[in-house]
């Protein structure tokens, strides 16, 4: 079942946009072709609720020695994405989104998930946020880690179905099916038009 099913989001809601950075845009080794397709939808939602938007940014380790565990193997495959080799501007948000900061906020992380160190959860609790409206990429990687962590912490999650992206159609489709079929009491999936119609604060 899709659509917003548990009431219109209000002042308890916040737009959490996952990793819409130049790092995943055209010309990058990690380019996600779909990102350009969903960017207008993410920008429209951000413009409507800029003061209620947080952008996460994926920040790779400074160098190979700063990677831990299996991330060491990961960055051995992608050494050009370590910060000692990466032009710093590649870490920035896509320009149509960057112009909204402030009032939108940035939240930097070095993992797929934004939750482990407790900073994001602490900020949201203090702000009275109980609903997260999630956009960004990738559907089955950083978005998945973000959504599962939100579920574990008891947040209501509304995933904007036409504002999430992946570099692989089959795994995107599989992830969307899992969100819709296995997390029915915790995740709602809805298109941008429906979300904007109902979120009017």
Descriptive tags:
33% helix, 201 residues, six-stranded parallel β-sheet, alpha/beta
The whole-number mean of residue pLDDT values reads: 97
The residue ranges in which pLDDT falls below 50 over 5 or more consecutive positions are none
Major sheet strand order: 3-2-1-4-5-6
**What helical percentage do the residues reach?**
25-40%
Number of helices: 7
End-to-end separation in angstroms reads 26 Å
SSE series? EHEHHEHEHEHEH
Proportion of residues in extended strands: 15-25%
Profile the largest sheet. 6 strands, parallel
Class computed from helices, strands and strand pairing: alpha/beta
- Label the overall shape: globular
Number of E-type strands: 6
Rg of Cα set: 16 Å
Write the layout of secondary structure elements.
Blueprint: E1 13-18, H1 34-48, E2 53-58, H2 70-77, H3 95-98, E3 105-109, H4 119-126, E4 131-137, H5 142-152, E5 156-165, H6 169-182, E6 187-190, H7 192-198
Parallel strand pairs: 1-2, 1-4, 2-3, 4-5, 5-6
Write structural notes for this entry.
The structure is a single chain. The protein is α/β, with parallel strands linked by helices and 201 residues long. It has helices spanning 34-48, 70-77, 95-98, 119-126, 142-152, 169-182, 192-198; strands spanning 13-18, 53-58, 105-109, 131-137, 156-165, 187-190. α6 links the parallel β5 (156-165) and β6. The longest helix has 15 residues, at 34-48.
